[in-house]
């Protein structure tokens, strides 16, 4: 059973009568969400360090690089492909973190 299937099963269970659900379930979910937020913050920090390394190496900020890269002005050097991938992974991590934070405070 996938994680999503397990979550859906738990959702169905809770929907039957949420008043009788053990509060430990809520605490466990809170801990899992907090753990995932911490993990995504670690991912962002690691990716941020990688972006800084590229910026230093090429004396170019990531925003300017990525704009030029998307226009095809940077070429296909392996470093540039890796830099662009790192930018995209950072964007993905930020979106996931925003989703987690939104869900945590809803």
Secondary structure layout plus pairing:
Elements: H1 3-16, H2 23-58, H3 62-70, H4 78-104
Helix pairs in contact: 2-4, 3-4
Can you walk me through this structure?
The chain is mainly alpha-helical. The protein has one domain. Helix content is 81%, strand content 0%. The protein has helices at 3-16, 23-58, 62-70, 78-104. The radius of gyration is 20 Å and the shape is elongated. The two termini are 27 Å apart.
Any idea how many domains? 1
Separate helix tally: 4
Helical content (DSSP H or I, runs of 4+): over 70%
State the order of secondary-structure elements, H for helix, E for strand: HHHH
Q: Output mean pLDDT.
A: 93
The N- to C-terminal Cα distance equals: 27 Å
Largest sheet: none
What structural class results from the helix and strand content?
mainly alpha
Low-pLDDT stretches are none
Task: Tell me what portion of residues adopts beta-strand conformation.
Answer: under 5%
The Cα radius of gyration reads 20 Å
* Number of extended strands: 0
Mass-distribution shape:
elongated
What's a concise summary of this model?
By secondary structure, the chain is mainly α. The chain is built from four helices and no strands.
Which terms summarize this structure?
mainly alpha, 4 helices, 0% strand, single chain, 106 residues, elongated
């Amino acid at each position: 059973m996938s994680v999503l299937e397990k979550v859906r099963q738990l959702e169905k269970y809770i929907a039957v009568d949420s008043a009788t659900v053990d509060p430990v379930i809520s605490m466990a979910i809170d801990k899992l969400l907090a753990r995932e937020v911490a993990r995504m913050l670690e991912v962002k920090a690691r990716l941020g360090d990688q972006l800084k390394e590229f910026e230093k190496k090429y004396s170019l900020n990531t925003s300017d690089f990525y704009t030029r890269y998307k226009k095809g002005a940077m070429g296909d050097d392996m470093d540039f492909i890796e830099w662009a991938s790192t930018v995209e992974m950072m964007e993905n991590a930020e979106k996931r973190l925003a989703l987690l934070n939104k869900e945590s405070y809803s």
